[in-house]
Amino acid sequence: MLNAPISVIIPCFNEQDAIAEVMADVSRTFVTSGVRHELIVVDDGSTDATPARIAASSVPHRLVRHRANRGYGAAIKSGVRAAAHDYVLITDADGQHAPESLLALLKEAEECDMVIGARRGQGSHHWRLPGKLLLKAVSELLVGARIPDINSGLRIARKAEIAKYMHLCSDQFSFSTSITLAFLSDRLAVKYVPVEARRRRGGASRVRVTTGLGTFMLILRTIGTFNPLRVFMPPTILLFALGAAVTGWELWYRNNVSDLGLLCLISSVLLFCFSLLADQISLLRREINKS
Questions:
Q1: Would you give the distance in Å from CA 122 to the centre of its chain?
Q2: pLDDT tens sequence across 146-205
Q3: What is the CA radius of gyration of the chain?
Q4: What is the rounded CA–CA span in Å between residue 272 and residue 224?
Q5: What is the pLDDT of residues 45-75, one digit of tens each?
Q6: Chain-centre distance of CA 98, in angstroms?
Q7: pLDDT tens digit string along 223-260?
Q8: Quick one: residue 85, left, alpha or beta (phi over 0 = left, psi -120 to 50 = alpha)?
């Protein structure tokens, strides 16, 4: 079990049905377990009774409030900046994470750079499942690592480590995805711990089709920032193989070279050069950030 004090961050937006109970559950669990902690609730411009429920809570906490809704990622960033302790634990305000799940993450926190709760039990809506599977497959392919839960909102890491990547992360729902990809791309130690997911106590999820499309572009941009070769090399190899196959067929059967074959070969060479240039720019940016 982690002995260091922890800053627990709960970002919330219009969670009047769940926030008070979640705050009480988290506080009770940590106090009972003897874990030193502070509770930071970030109200992301809620328009319902959420602010009143937070104010009425008897649980010791610090409140960070956005005047207008800025997004899930922006709320987490505000909470991380306000955190007083070295370790930061982020959990959702909708009650889907049991308090015991938070303690499960603490057991692995000292051995890893980030520990993430991989949800079981409460699945996604059927219409969202294909999109989630696609995003998961693309992410695993690009980072070269297994990702059991692509956008879990339950995680713990050192504040300093999260702060290094916050400027690269989205202010919206895809913050969880982008910070995970950033850690994995830099080969930091990320561990997934299976946790049970309960049904939401608050309102319906605000994830939409456009959220998935935005997340897909964010995945490409994040991987392109850390490891551009993983983005550029697959289409480069595909174009070269296609061009070589078409050119070889044309030479063998027609004793000629087609425009399509040449176009594919030239495009693959140009794309390969772009990938090397992007890789050098990525390395340069990271060296500048380290200094």
A1: 19
A2: 889 888 999 999 999 999 999 888 888 889 988 998 899 888 999 999 998 887 765 555
A3: 23
A4: 14
A5: 999 999 999 999 999 999 999 999 999 999 9
A6: 20
A7: 777 788 888 888 999 999 999 999 999 888 888 888 89
A8: beta
Q: For 78-113, b where at least 16 C-beta lie within 10 A, e where not — what string?
A: bbbeebebebbbbbbbbbbbbbebbbbbbebbeebb
Is residue 37 within 8 Å of residue 109, measured between CB atoms? no
Neighbours of 39 (CB within 10 A): 19
| Token code pair at residue 251 | 């030479």
Q: Which amino acid is at 166?
A: M
Looking at residue 169, its amino acid is C
CA-to-CA dists, residue 78 to 11, 197, 212, 219, angstroms: 9, 25, 24, 23
| Tokens 């949800």, located at residue | 119
Question: For residue 252, which amino acid is it?
Answer: W
Interatomic CA distance for residues 143 and 222, integer angstroms: 10
CA 120 from centre of chain:
18
